[in-house]
């Protein structure tokens, strides 16, 4: 058995969860925050059989989109309040996926 941990953008979360549940898998959705942007994203936990990993990753690939975001690299500070910050374009997503071996699974 595998545990898939997938970090996706909030914009894709509803569609991904729908696709995963429609395909017959179980998923837990957690509201998370990315360390770099410090903005909300969604982390999905999905326990599946080994032979389902490729199918699940395929679903994530089809439903999660790459997007570009503008990230401030020189935000204006108290020392220079009139400075207009500089921005850099950063590509985010589709999905960041971890595949972990599950040693033991039990529901009581
Ligand atoms: P954030 O940490 O908010 O990162 C958002 C985007 O900023 C990243 O998109 C990447 O394009 C860029 N980025 C992040 N750290 C960077 C760095 N040190 N230098 C330059 N650019 C950087 P993604 O790579 O698609 O990641 C989307 C979200 O997935 C991340 O949000 C984070 O929440 C999670 N993530 C990505 N890689 C991870 C990892 N190795 N471990 C844990 N979480 C990860």
Tell me about this structure:
The chain has 108 residues and is α+β, with helices and mostly antiparallel strands. Helix content is 22%, strand content 38%. The protein has a 4-stranded antiparallel beta sheet with strand order 2-3-1-6. The site of ligand 2BA has 11 residues, from β5.
What are its keywords?
two-stranded antiparallel sheet
In short:
This protein has 108 residues and is of the alpha+beta class.
Broad shape:
elongated
Total helical segments:
2
In terms of per-residue confidence, which ranges show pLDDT below 50 for 5 or more consecutive residues? none
- Could you estimate the helical fraction of the residues in percent? 10-25%
Strand fraction = 35-45%
Report the bound ligands by name, code or SMILES.
ligand 2BA
């Amino acid at each position: 058995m595998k545990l898939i941990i997938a970090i996706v953008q909030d914009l894709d979360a509803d569609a991904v969860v729908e696709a995963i549940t429609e395909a017959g898998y179980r998923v837990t959705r957690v509201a998370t925050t990315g360390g770099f942007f410090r903005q909300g994203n969604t982390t999905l936990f999905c326990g599946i059989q080994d032979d389902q990993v490729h199918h699940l990753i395929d679903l994530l690939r089809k439903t999660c989109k790459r997007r570009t975001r503008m990230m401030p690299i020189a935000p204006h500070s108290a020392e220079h309040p009139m400075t207009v910050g500089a921005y850099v374009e950063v590509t985010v997503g589709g999905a960041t996926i971890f595949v972990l071996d599950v040693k033991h699974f039990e529901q009581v």
